[in-house]
């Protein structure tokens, strides 16, 4: 007869859970006896013996129950468990097609701790096996900067490694205290440290409650009626829910108020911003990407202004309060009233991407566009044309940027020509080099390397390789988001390099907005969420690059690099280059993981073979990167 499986719950002590197996025998034989398949005849004796853990047979009292249909056989039985003190009456129902159902004859006790499975077999009768049930969450509440979770579990060992987690954030329970028999209270901080950095509020994302290896505590039925539960405090918002699978999920978002998170509220705030006539203040509003980091040339300019223009208030638009902003600056949640006020009243605006379409520069404001990488792939007219935009729309986009930007930053005169042609830009082009590159030339590299590797938990004696692929258009999932390019076999790479190497995987900013991370490969650390790419550039001994503009920054370090470009023949179909890729890649172009590992095995030899190419590359592309770009920009743009 085909196997049929159903689940019931009953009570057993923890010591018995692993070994307990009950087998209900057909007729007068034990469960292991062979017999004919199918339901027993009506006159056949009922089951009388049960095989309990370790092969012990126990007599049980069986009482036949009158069935509503002649073909249905049903009985109840009770059996002492191996602990000797637990007894439970069950109802077993052998129905049509020999489907076996096992049901509790009364509601389970509060100390239910095992899930039992009854399986009907063709020749072995039926098996009733126990396995631990997941812990059950009975209540939750917030206590200041903590989340308090009450859990029912067999004992505290069932809550080993209790945590809230997603691919980029892990929040362990820092305290678990007993409340009574099988009842515990776990406390989680609503603040965390990223890569050993300062303690900050939890970042935006969905955190799932887990214990042990893949065990997900379930929400108790009484708790389900109270979910979803929403909590807002000064540092974050929580939405606690339990999806159909009944795992407990904590959604963390920025602490915008109810009006600010609604579409209607945002529309009203944008209209009010556009009509603002507030007086400009001595302040600068910095923004980087979508606010997930405070980095790039904006961070260098913030540091420079702190020294040279201390009277300016320095604001940062951030996605949430997990973003660490430079010392002395003020974080503002993007989309909040305070952020709109700063956008309307700051005398200086500085961004590395465009503000959203509602943006209107006010009279007296000055907007510096820094962009976020050395221009190489199609942009402006070429990019929009590739997207199928009409000439009218392209002209409109060019005109909008000419109206908004007071000045743009470029790393060389050659790059200035690209912006003049692609954006038809007629405003001020500051050919200064990028402020973000200054630290690569000015920092005490040994000190920075030691600090960064300590944060990452990597020994200073390790050979560290930074793998930083750019995003691929065909992996885009939504605006400003994409899955990570994963054709490099990290397992094979680390196996080929050996135990003296550590590989740091740094996804593109677009990859950071997706959840895929690499956490299961030995000698590999996923540093996509590490806040400062310059730290990683200084700490690593070699780099695996591709079409990313990071190669222009990396070349300033003079360290060896290879280019993993298995899709070289197809990559530029969607994003044509502004100039040939070969002339801006001072290292070997490789197409397989084995080639990459072979080149990186001897770093001194690799560097010796490309030192002249790196020097020529820097002379061509990085002649203005001398460690003083920040000073030039502050003097040219932020001086009254």
Report what the structure shows.
The protein has 640 residues and is α/β, with parallel strands linked by helices. It is built from 18 helices and 38 strands. The strands form eight sheets. It has a seven-stranded parallel beta sheet, with helices on both faces. It has a six-stranded antiparallel beta sheet with strand order 1-9-10-2-3-4, with no helix packed on it. Strands 14-13-19-23-22-21 form a six-stranded antiparallel beta sheet, with no helix packed on it. Strand 15 and strand 16 form a beta hairpin. Helix 5 (296-308) crosses helix 18 (629-637), helix 7 (380-386) runs antiparallel to helix 8 (391-404) and helix 12 packs parallel to helix 16 (593-600). It is globular, with a radius of gyration of 32 Å. Mean pLDDT is 81; it is low at 1-131.
Distinctive features:
disordered N terminus; 640 residues; globular; alpha/beta; six-stranded antiparallel beta sheet
């Amino acid at each position: 007869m085909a196997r049929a499986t159903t689940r019931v719950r009953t009570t057993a002590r923890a010591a018995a859970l692993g070994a307990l197996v009950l087998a209900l025998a057909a007729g007068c034989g034990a469960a292991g006896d062979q017999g004919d398949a199918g339901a027993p005849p009506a006159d056949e004796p009922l089951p009388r013996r049960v095989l309990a853990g370790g092969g012990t047979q126990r007599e049980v009292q069986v009482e036949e129950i009158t069935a509503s249909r002649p073909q249905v056989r049903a009985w109840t039985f009770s059996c002492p468990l191996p602990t000797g003190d637990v007894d439970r009456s069950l109802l077993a129902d052998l129905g049509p097609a020999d489907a076996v159902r096992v049901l509790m004859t009364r509601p389970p006790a509060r100390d239910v701790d095992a899930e039992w499975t009854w399986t009907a077999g063709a020749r072995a009768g039926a098996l009733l096996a126990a396995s631990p049930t997941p812990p059950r969450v009975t209540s939750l509440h917030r206590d200041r900067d903590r989340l308090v979770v009450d859990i029912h579990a067999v004992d505290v060992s069932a809550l080993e490694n209790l945590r809230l987690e997603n691919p980029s954030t892990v929040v362990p329970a820092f305290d678990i205290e007993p409340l009574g028999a099988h009842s515990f209270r776990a406390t989680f901080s609503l603040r965390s440290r990223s890569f050993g950095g300062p303690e900050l509020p939890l970042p935006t994302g969905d955190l799932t409650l887990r214990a042990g290896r893949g065990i997900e505590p379930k929400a108790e039925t009484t708790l389900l009626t109270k979910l979803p539960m929403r909590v807002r405090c000064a540092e974050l918002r929580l939405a606690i829910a339990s999806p159909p699978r009944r795992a407990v999920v904590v959604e963390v978002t920025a602490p915008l108020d109810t009006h600010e998170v609604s579409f209607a509220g945002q529309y009203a705030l944008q209209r009010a911003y556009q009509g603002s006539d507030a007086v400009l203040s001595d302040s600068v509003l910095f923004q980087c990407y979508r606010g997930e980091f405070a980095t790039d040339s904006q961070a260098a300019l913030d540091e420079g202004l702190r020294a040279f223009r201390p009277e300016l208030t320095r604001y940062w638009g951030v996605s949430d309060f997990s973003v660490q902003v430079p010392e002395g600056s003020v974080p503002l949640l993007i989309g909040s009233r305070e952020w709109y006020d700063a956008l309307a009243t700051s005398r200086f605006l500085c961004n590395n991407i465009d503000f959203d379409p509602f943006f209107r520069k006010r009279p007296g404001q000055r907007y510096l566009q820094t962009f976020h990488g050395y221009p190489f792939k199609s942009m402006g007219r070429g990019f929009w044309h590739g997207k199928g935009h009409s000439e009218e729309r392209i002209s409109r986009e060019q005109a909008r940027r000419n109206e908004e930007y007071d000045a743009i930053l470029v790393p060389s005169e050659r790059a200035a020509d690209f912006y003049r042609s692609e954006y038809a830009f007629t405003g001020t082009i500051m050919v200064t080099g990028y402020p973000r590159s200054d630290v690569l030339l000015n920092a005490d590299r040994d000190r920075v390397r030691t600090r960064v590797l300590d944060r990452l938990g990597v020994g200073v004696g390790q050979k560290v390789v930074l793998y930083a692929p750019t995003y691929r258009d065909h992996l885009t999932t939504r605006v400003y988001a994409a899955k990570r390019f994963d054709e490099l076999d990290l397992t094979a790479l680390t196996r080929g390099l050996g135990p003296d190497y550590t590989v740091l995987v740094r996804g593109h900013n677009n990859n950071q907005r997706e959840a895929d991370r690499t956490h299961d490969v030995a000698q590999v650390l996923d540093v996509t969420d590490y806040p400062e790419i310059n730290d990683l550039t200084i700490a690593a001994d070699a780099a695996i690059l591709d079409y990313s503009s990071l190669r222009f920054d990396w070349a300033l370090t003079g360290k060896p690099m290879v280019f993993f470009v298995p899709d070289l023949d197809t990559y530029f179909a969607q994003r044509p280059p502004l100039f040939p890729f070969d002339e801006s890649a001072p290292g070997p172009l490789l197409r397989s993981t084995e080639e990459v590992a072979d080149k990186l095995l001897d770093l001194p030899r690799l560097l010796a073979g490309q030192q002249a190419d790196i020097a020529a590359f820097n002379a061509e592309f990085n002649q203005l990167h001398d460690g003083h770009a920040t000073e030039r920009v502050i003097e040219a743009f932020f001086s009254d």
